[in-house]
Amino acid sequence: MENPEYAAKERKKAREAARNSDPERRREIQRAYHARHADDPAYRERLRRKWNRKHWKKHPERLVTYRRRVEAQAACHRICTSCRASFPATSEFFGSAKRTADKLAAECKKCARNVKKVWWDQLSQEERRVRNSKQRAARATAPGIFTGHDIKALFVRQNACCLYCGIKIGRNYARWHVDHFMPLSRGGSNFPENLVVACEPCNRAKYNKMPWEWLPDQFSPPSSQ
Ligand SMILES: [Zn+2]
Ligand SMILES: [Zn+2]
Fold first, then answer.
1. CATH among 1.20.120, 1.10.3470, 3.30.160, 3.30.60 for 60-116
2. N or C: which end of the chain has fewer CB within 10 A?
């Protein structure tokens, strides 16, 4: 005599085997299950954990990076996405970015500079010339003109120091540049009133920023004075 319980179990086994042997049918069943339970938080949590387990198993090396990132965040550090080194999350080590939560760039300043240099090196000679001549044109078409006398006057006025960091500049001291206080690209002029002398690192760091954007503690925009 046949045991009904045993027969039911066998039938179920057969059904499951048939389902597993047909991947299309199996997927259909899974999709239906998902549709039925999509609003169930417990099911979604199970799914999330399953996905996480799978993900970390697939990319064990990313787990290391992830842990490092969490540790760095706890220490107010930030890991450069390019060189993977950890730096304090300050503007000293990271440039500014509009889209990130803390307004700091993902890459450290050193890597960002390298990228820029690589980008410049990749340009063809003609392209570089065009870009250089554009910059020269911006310099030439900006209103105003200055001479060596103006620069000498600047040196006297600033006591031969960088306007921004105060380092001694000149023949036997730090390398220096003539800096446009308001950048030419932002509507500044070539008149001596708009010129200052600055050490090379400060000039490079300031780049095309207004002084109050770069050093908000030292300068304030004209409107707020
Ligand atoms: Zn870096
Ligand atoms: Zn300086």
1. 3.30.60
2. N
